Amino acid sequence: MSTSNLLSQEKSNTPRLGLYLFLVPLFFWAIALFAISDALLFWIKGEAKYEQNILKEWLEEARVFRRSLPELIDNYRKLANTENTKVEPLQDGLNQLGLVRREEIYQHLRALGEPPTKIHPGILPLFPTFYEIEITIAEESDRPIRWASGFPFQPEQSQILEYTIADNAKVKLYYQLHAYDRRRSIEQEKLSRGRWLFLVGAGLALAVTIQSFYSYFRERARFLQSQKVAQAAAFAEKELLAQQLVAKAAEKDSVELRSQMYAGVGIMAGSYAHNIKNLLVRPLDLLRRCTSNKALDQNTSSMLGEVENTLGAVADRLEQILRAVRRQDDKFEPVRFDLNELVIRTVSNWKALANDKWKIDLEITAQPKGEIFIKADPSHVQQILENLVFNARDAIFEQRLALREQARSQQIDDIQKSKATIIEAAAWRGRISFSLSSLSNNVILEVQDNGAGMNPEVVTRCTEAYFSTRRESAIFEGLGSGMGLGLSFVQSVLDKSGGKMTVSSQKGFGATFKIQYGMAL
To answer: What does the pLDDT look like over 505-519, one tens digit per residue?
Structure first.
């Protein structure tokens, strides 16, 4: 929503501003009073609650037959439930054991009620007088277990405690803990406390009213002041939106131009691949004739065979390029192949170049024994492996350059030590390792390097199309680097073939690309 719209909305809401500023403090104080309601109730009825808590603890913890009242009730309920599962229903009474359990509960209630009631009736106010204790079980609500003292009592002169003492069992206690005069004194204290609370509430209400009017006039002044600021901000916001629209339009045109350019490059690459493949037909035929000549010595025949294999590999790679250019997404048909063999072949193809020219150790650190089959497009998976190798190579070149610059910029007084530091930085070698393993029904391929690494922001965006941190300085392999297409191609192929990739990296400490495929049985 623009600033102008917000300004108009504030103008329309101005008449209701005073009401809001009046209700907000009231709402705040209502919440505060609600939060301390329990404390206020405890202040008013604190003595009664304290007495009831003592009685609850006495009912639940006292033991007469080595068991508490809740335990006796639970034993009786379990027995009653067992009897109810029999074929003959329980009607007028329980069996002998059930009667024993009921008698135990009754004697327990009697033992709880008689000593303080019979020995100290009305003598000491701290000793309660129990008139009646009743246990009601949900399964036998019409047959409660009741103990009565036999003393007459009036409901208005007695107190009642009723709560759930065990599962599906309630206890109801009629008692008197204090003398009647003492109760009247407590009631007078309650009335006095209520008056004080009323006075406190009235004072708070007056304070809230004063605060509300003060807040209203203060906010009104702020609102009038903010109108001027909002008008200036509205104009600035319109200018900013216009600039953003222009930038988005330019970015959209740039993406379309890049898409058209890369589409044209793909068509041109397919045309070149087709022409080169046609040109290789004749040399391959001549090499086959030469190698079939038995008059050649073994050394010459071996060299010609190696040339033939190399040209055959070139022809196969051109065929893969042609298939990739002509491929249609709706006709994608993956095949079952051995990923372990493809990793070994890829590392073997680039190992010598990496060691001699790139000064990088390309190796396989872990691989399972035997074959590991997945279902995907072999040419695409090989392109994934090579893209990860090229990405690691560029990161290693970047790390090597950073180490050399760091060594040159160090202020070391000892010339020999300075030279040794520069030589050590120049001799630093990169490392790219492949690790292949299986977990449950999945194949895990990890490609790890000791290059420059990435910060968290770059990690989250590294698979986006056209995103690259080397676009302005593609110095590693000419114009082929820094276009932002390598990892985006990897992610696109994995999405189509059901694979997954996770990237973990830290700036200055290399990166690890973990690819997961489902195992093809």
So the answer is: 999 899 999 999 999
Which amino acid, one-letter code, is at 192? S
Tokens of 65: 């037959």
pLDDT for 148-165, tens place per residue?
Answer: 888 887 766 678 888 898
3-class SS letters over 18-43: HHHHHHHHHHHHHHHHHHCHHHHHHH
- How far from the centroid of its chain's Cα atoms is residue 108's Cα? 55
* CA atoms of 157 and 371, how far apart (whole Å): 91
Question: Residues near 475 by Cβ (< 8 Å), separated by ≥ 6?
Answer: 397, 481
For residue 443, give the H/E element and its range.
strand 442-449
**How far is the C-alpha of 52 from the C-alpha of 49, rounded, in Å?**
5
Dig out the tokens for 95 from the structure. 């069996």
- Encode pLDDT of 391-404 as tens digits: 999 999 999 988 88
Which amino acid is present at 195? R
Q: With H, G, I as helix, E, B as strand and everything else as coil, classify residue 436.
A: strand
User: For 129, phi and psi rounded to 5 degrees?
Assistant: -110, 115
Residues in a beta bridge with 161: 173
Residue 334 scores a pLDDT above 60 = yes
Q: How far, in Å, CA of 76 to CA of 79, rounded?
A: 5
**Could you give the C-alpha distances from 453 to 158, 407, 425, 445, 503, in angstroms and in order?**
81, 19, 18, 19, 11
Whole-model pTM over 0.85: no
What's the rounded Cα separation, in Å, for the pair 374 and 439? Answer: 13
Tokens at residue 275, please?
A: 């022409």
Strands (E), 48-203: 129-137, 145-148, 159-166, 169-176
Q: Is the dihedral of CA 400, 404, 405, 410 positive or negative?
A: positive
Say if CB 382 and CB 342 are below 8 A apart: yes
Instruction: Provide the 8-state DSSP code for 462.
Output: T
